[in-house]
Amino acid sequence: MIKGIKVMLIPNNKQNTKMFQFAGAKRFAYNWALAREQENYKNYGKFISDNDLRKEFTQLKKIEEYNWLNNISNNVTKQAIKDCCLSFKRFFKGQAKYPKFKSRKHDKPKFYQDNIKIKFNGTHVKFEGLTDSKKQNKRKLNWVKLAEKNRIPFGQDIKYINPRVSFDGINWFISIGIEIRDNYELPTNKGIGIDVGIKDLAICSDGNTYKNINKTKRVKKLKKTKKRLQRKVSRKYEDNRIGKIYKKTNNIIKLEKRILKLNHKLTNIRSNYIHQTTTEIINREPMFIAIEDLNISGMMKNKHLSKAVQEQCLYEFRRQIVYKSLWNNIKVIDVDRWYPSSKTCSECGSIKKDLKLSDREYVCLECGCIIDRDYNASINIMKYGQSMILAS
Q: Which residue range is the domain that position 26 belongs to?
């Protein structure tokens, strides 16, 4: 099994500059390969393989105009050319759109590192080519500090897969795949049904409820600050407008950077909470997890609920449940979106067709059962999962 890990980097100024140079060289190599493929196609030539393009690129570096490419790690540009050819192959197979040129303004800075030459210890990662100096003091520049200690396993027996370094606008991150042993132990605890929603993130059939993180004071305060900053930026743009042209001043750039940091902070808070929630559910080691197959894209079209659905990150919650269950041999059962989990009584099974969204308690007219609406739905989802297990 291959497990993906993503960790933030803490580079110094020299390392930060060099990493941006690597990202620029990667973008140049990708665009060069794309231009060569397009030029060859117009001249009725066959598809150029990545091996031939890489040989041609090696000769290009000998020209004085492109001499700066010799200061960049060879694997960065070679992998960029390979990625370009791979995107062409995916286009010919109908798996992706036609590849486009990477613009300096809109392209996300990122690059590849060789999976054999990259090295880790508990606190640092060693990159190839940040410095070629033989002096021991300057060779330390190749070692970039990791934000989390001992997060990435290291040793001679560890095999690393596809190391990628990316910049999100504020921080650098490294993502890497690691081969781990498959887990063959089957959990035997009672299955769990999960009802996700907007009022609360998740209500489990075993009685656990996970609240909506967006309703906390901390998140509300950050959202309020963000709204004020956005209005301030909007006023600045209007004040500096010349006719139909908007002028971007240094103060606007500073404000936009503050908004970007706030956006990252809010995203990290939500992501961290979802990871904690899903891990806690998985650690209970249920036999199966039954979860509704919601139409998230359809819910996003509702102008009254779209913002709440987006902030709740329901798709990300489901995605994490699926891959973490796969790691622990827990079966995930998809409950049909048309299954009346909220309208069905969890005690007697009768269906209440006139149940409204405003009714937060389920009152059964047949057996007199009074139960929380969402908890009732989670029990029904769990029972649906049990029936699917017995049927299989």
A: 2-179
